[in-house]
Structure to design on (182 residues):
């Protein structure tokens, strides 16, 4: 089985090719972001990142953030969310809980409080249902700060929300009036 270091390396590689740069290995994503598993394994190997189906399945099954998902017969794989390439995730709009959370670095706070949350180079703004996850996300970019998002109020005002396979809430943007600094 893979070492933790190999697991992390392959997981980061999968994030790159399934979320941002499928052209890096010449893989095709369909309109919903799915890639053929056999092609992924073959083309990854040609790019110098070698793994078997068993190892790929282990990565998908054990990833603590559930970043990747297989279709029912494990012939297709996709990233659950976080894409910068245009796909139709197929997620249906859902009513969010009253409050969701967004973790960021404190260095971003002034800009966010002036301009709101924007998806930047991704397809959606990512929100979590708990502060612990938001803190973990924010700490990847510096000293973390958590913002409270008045999600149900946004939804009632006509904003769409989607829940990804790995339970990350997605929306297009969050205007300043729906934000509170914890």
């Amino acid at each position: 089985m893979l070492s933790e270091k190999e697991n992390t390396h392959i997981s980061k590689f999968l994030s790159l090719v399934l979320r941002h740069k499928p052209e890096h290995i010449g893989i095709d994503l369909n309109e919903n972001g799915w890639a053929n598993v056999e092609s992924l394994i073959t083309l990854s190997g040609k790019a110098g990142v070698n793994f078997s189906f068993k190892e790929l399945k282990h990565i998908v099954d054990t990833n603590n953030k559930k970043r990747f998902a297989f279709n029912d017969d494990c012939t297709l794989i996709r990233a659950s969310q976080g894409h910068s390439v245009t796909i139709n995730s197929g997620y249906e709009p859902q009513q969010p809980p009253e409050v969701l959370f967004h973790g960021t670095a404190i260095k971003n706070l002034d800009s966010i409080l002036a301009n709101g949350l924007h998806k930047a180079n991704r397809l959606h703004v990512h929100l979590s249902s708990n502060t612990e996850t938001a803190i973990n996300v924010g700490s990847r970019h510096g000293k973390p700060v958590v913002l409270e998002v008045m999600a149900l109020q946004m939804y009632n005002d006509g904003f769409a929300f989607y829940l990804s396979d790995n339970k990350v809430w997605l929306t297009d943007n969050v205007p300043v009036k729906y934000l509170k600094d914890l």
Remarks:
- The helical segments are 4-20, 37-46, 53-62, 109-115, 131-139, 151-156.
